[in-house]
Structure formats: C-alpha cells, structure tokens
Amino acid sequence: MLKNIKSMKKITTIFAIAALILTASCGKDKAASKDTAPAIAVKVSTPSAEGSTYLSASGKIEAVQNANLSTRMMGYVTDTYVNVGDKVSKGQLLLRINSADISAQSAQVSASITEAKAAFKNAEKDYNRFKALYAQSSVSQKEMDDITANYDMAKARLEGATQMKNQVNAQLSYSNISAPFSGVVTGKFINKGDMANPGMPLISIETPGSFQVVAMVPETEITKIKNGTTVNVVVKSTNELIKGTVTEVSSSAKNTGGQYLVKVVLDKTDAKLLSGMFTSVQFPVEKSTESNLILVPESALVRQGQLTGIYAIGNENVAILRWLRTGKTFGDNVEVLSGLAADEQFIVSAEGKLFNGAKVLIN
Question: Which is nearest to 175 in space by CA: 261, 257, 106?
C-alpha cells in the first residue's frame, strides 16, 4: 500500500513538471509571435507654430437681404397667395388676414369725413360772408368771433376725421401682408384658417444670390478682427472653401452671451449655398510672440468619446497614445495645452491600424 502511494506521488510530480514546461513553451511562442509582429509604417512630425495662424469660428450662412414678415393685428388668415420657393415682386400681396371689423371702421370714418367736409364748406361760406360784412361794419365783433370759432372747429373736425382715416388705412395694411422687396419665399409658417397673432412670423423671404456668414467670436480674439479683412469660409456640409470679407464687427456682447457678432459677406461663387448652412470662418490673426503655441494637425488627433489624444513615438519605436488637453483651432491645426512637448514626435499617418504599444517603422 505504501509502495502504491509513493508511485502515485511520483506520477503526479511528473505531470506537474510537464505542465510547467508546456506553459513556458506556449508563453515563449506567444512572446515570440508578438515580438515578430511586423512594424507599422508611419509618418511622423513635430508640433509647429510657424507660418500663418488662423482663428476658427463657427458661423451660419444667411442672405444679405432677408426678412421675417409679421402683423400687428390678431385675426384669422383668410387667404394665402404664395408657397415656399415662389418668386415674389416688391409690393406683391402674400396673404390676407380677416379685417371685417376694420373695414366697418373704415366705412364709418368715410361717412364722418363726408359729414365733416359738408360742415366745413358751410362754415367756410358763413365765415367768408361775415368777414365781408365785418369789413363794412355790418356785424358786431361778437358775431364775427362766433363765426370764426365755428369755422375753426369745422376745420379741426375735418382734419381729425382725415387722420382717423389714415389710422384705419394703416390697420388695413397690417391685414394685407405684402413683400417689402423682390425675392424668394423661404418659409411659410401659417395656413388659411390659422389665427395670426401680433409679432408672430408668418412668411420669410430673402434675396437669393448674395450671402453672408454670421459668426460668433470670443472676447479674447475680437480685438484682432478688423473690417475689410479677407477671410476663408469653409462650408461644413460640402467642405468647399469660399473667400469672404468682414463687413461688420460688433462692439458689444450684451445680448449675445459674451460672444461678439461678426458678419462676413461672401464673394460670388458657383457653389450651391443655402441659408442656414453651418460654416467655419478662418480669421487670419497675428502670432503672439509672448507665447509659444504647440500646434498639431487636426487629422492626427484620435477621439474617443470626450477624450482627445495623439500617438507619440516612444522608446524602441513604439506608438504611445497620449491624451491631450486642446485649446483654440487655427485653420487645420489645433493648439495643444498639455500632453505633448514641443520637441516630441507624433504620428501623422499610418499604413495600418495603430494601437497603444504597436511597433512602428518611421518612413
């Protein structure tokens, strides 16, 4: 019995040693395969702040001449005469709002004017007659004063009725919405039978062919932007580059949340532009001599969720993923605030899929 137990222990020891040898062998094979993995060919660069720098600001395209039409009266829309995309001429009727009550007032005022005119003519005749008699000393001063007062009151009543007519006509103009200039209907926000309220946008029109970009610039950079500056505008949806000129620089951020409004009129172009397209405006700014900017191409950045990183070159030509804290955008370059030194190499492009710790071959 004792002999069998010793034999079993010996067999168990032999199996354990064999397992250790097999494990070590597999580990060596894996290490060998990892070490012999082909290096990924890459192109590298170092951070730079040389050359022209640009401040990039987001903006939106709009027509230079545009308007949102509304009314000052409340009422139901009785008729609409245009649709989105229709070309309209200046003064063309676009929609009509129910104005039965104002039409009734207009009729009453017209009757009042007719009555006031008749009274004024009669008072004017009496005034002229008494004026001639007064010159002949045929009427007293009191009678002349009464006739003069009656004449002045008749004249004032006629003037009041005429001004009332002007007021009613103004109210009627608010019920008939017309085009303030020739253009294209870009928005229709109400239909026949809907209730129109004062100040509510009803129809928007714009003049096509002439566009501008409205961009918001932070207070730290607004003093560097001047009227007449030529800028580059990149349309984000089509990636087209268009030249433009700064025509307006706001001097107050009171109503814009701390951002300053800058308008850029775009040059004539064959590019298909529509109001509302988002853009990136590149304002040329002077490079500060007091601070050394660390700039890297935006195409070299790696983004994972809210994190932004870049692959740097580590010891023995190994790719190391560095997480960065980035700052402002200058054209196609991004400022690096921390995470990468000014003399460190980083990977610009690779001929394979990079990962942290991958061996690379620098071209």
Answer: 106
